[in-house]
Amino acid sequence: MRSAVGSAYRLGEVERSDRTLTATVDFDASSPLFAGHYPDLAVVPGVLLIDLSRRVAVEHFADLLGGGRPQIHSAQFSAPVYPGTPVTLHAEVGAGSEVRVRLLDDEQKLASIRLRDNSVRPIFTPPPLTAVVGAPMEPRLPHRPPMAFLDEVVAVSPERLHARAGRSSIDFHRDTTTFVSPDPATVWPPALVLEAWCQAAAVLMMRLAPEFATTVPAVLISRLTAVRSLADAALGDTIDLHVRLLERYPTASTLTGCARVGERVVLEIDRLTATLRPFDRLRSPSA
């Protein structure tokens, strides 16, 4: 069975045996998504790997999942995925309809993603929209259209940040099929709402890292835990992004938060762990 899904990637032959499947994924190096994600070094966004994994699970394990759309229980990223390099995807449905996905480059593990119904609510309580006390600032990130989503940073303090998204890059994603949306013509793909929140989290991380006061680093997500899409964000909605710092380590930070439209929470993130790294320390695909 062959499936061509997503305008920035192609899924090759899918070999399924009962509760497991294997396929090869080719990411189109010419797609503007990858240059926009990191202009200085094209890398496949982690949210695209998650979205691809969930898409494959829903399309190819529909008989085992009962028509449900599993949430992100956890996602761990071990190494960058570079467009133009074929990736092997292994997926397995376990107990309780949990889907485990591994993405490999030969024998090297690139990412491990677990999808299931997240019944435990994250620890973050959305604050009132005016709760973050601090001056607004310009977001300073490496991302460029069509993968730059922050419209503004409304307020930032040492441990919290409130940003907004909803206008940036909207026209491109209204016309692309790379990310799954309940209605591509009217609704933001949930994966891109998550990407916008991750970019807001990166702004807070960079504010706490004086070593990057004059340079813009790459933001490397190592782990996401208990991410739940709760409602749709319509194209044209103002999406408020709330981030709170949980812990800061010498080389990484752990954050939590949510995205909402008005008073309605559309996305909850229990924990994100990420690091900041100079671009010249990232391995190039030809190295």
UniProtKB/TrEMBL annotation:
Lyase found in the keyword field: yes
Domain of life: Bacteria
Keywords on record: Lyase
Gene Ontology MF: a single term: lyase activity
Domain ApeI dehydratase-like: 15-109
Pfam families: ApeI-like (PF22818)
Keyword Transcription regulation listed: no
Family per similarity comment: Belongs to the thioester dehydratase family. FabZ subfamily.
Protein name: ApeI dehydratase-like domain-containing protein
Species this protein is from: Nocardia terpenica
Taxon lineage: Bacteria, Bacillati, Actinomycetota, Actinomycetes, Mycobacteriales
